Amino acid sequence: MVIVFFGPPGSGKGTQSQELGKTIKDLIHVSTGDLLRQEIASASELGHRLKSKIEAGEFVTDDIIVQLVSGILRKNVKKDIIFDGFPRTLQQAIAFDTLLGVENLKVDVVFDFDIDVHVVIERVTGRYMCLGCGAVYHKKNKKPKVDSVCDQCGGIRFVERKDDSVDVLETRLKIYQEETLPVKKYYGDKGVLKRIDASLSPDEVTCFIKTALLEAGLIRRGE
Fold this sequence. Notes:
Elements: E1 2-6, H1 13-21, E2 28-31, H2 32-41, H3 45-55, H4 62-75, E3 81-84, H5 90-102, E4 109-114, H6 117-124, E5 127-130, E6 136-138, E7 158-159, H7 166-190, E8 193-197, H8 202-215
Parallel strand pairs: 1-3, 1-4, 2-3, 4-8
Antiparallel strand pairs: 5-6, 5-7
Helix pairs in contact: 1-8, 2-3, 4-5
C-alpha cells in the first residue's frame, strides 16, 4: 500500500503518519524533509548545498528528491509506506509513478491536508525539536510532559529550526501554493485525492484517514 500525505508545512502530516503507524504494523514513514536533514547532518558536499537552500526557504531540485525517494522505495518495496511531503511538483509525481510502475505498485490514496495559511504560521513558528532524537514540540500546543525534558529520549537540549521562522515560512508557503496546484489536479484526475480539513483536531483527522482507508479496502475493520 502506498499512501501520500500532501500538504503545507505545519498541516499535521508528520503527526498523522505517527498515528497511522500505531494502526498498521511495520508501516514505513518517509518524510522527504527528514531525508534532506539527514543528508545535511552527514556534512557531505550535497548536504552543504542543501543546507543553504533549505535555510533560505527554497525547495530542492526534483532530481535530488526523486533520487532519495528511489533509494528508500527499493529498500521497502514490499512494505506499506506513507510518503510525507512527496511528491511536491508535477514532475515529481510523474517520476514517482514511473518508479512505482517498475515495482508493479501505484499510489493508492492521496490525502490533501487543507489548512488556512494563518493557522499554519501559528503552528510552525512555535515549533522546536530535541537535538538528541529529533522529536518535535510546540511552545503552545505540544510541550514535553516534563518541562525542558524530551519525552522520547530524556534529552535536555532543544533548538528551533531556522526554516521555521516567519519569513522563511512565508516563502515556503508561496512556493508550495504555486508548485503543488498541478499535483492536486494530477491526483484528482486519477480519482485518488481525498481532502482533509487539517484545522480539525488531531483525533478527528485520524478518524477521517482511517475511515477513508477502511472504505477503500486498504485496512481491515479493527485495525
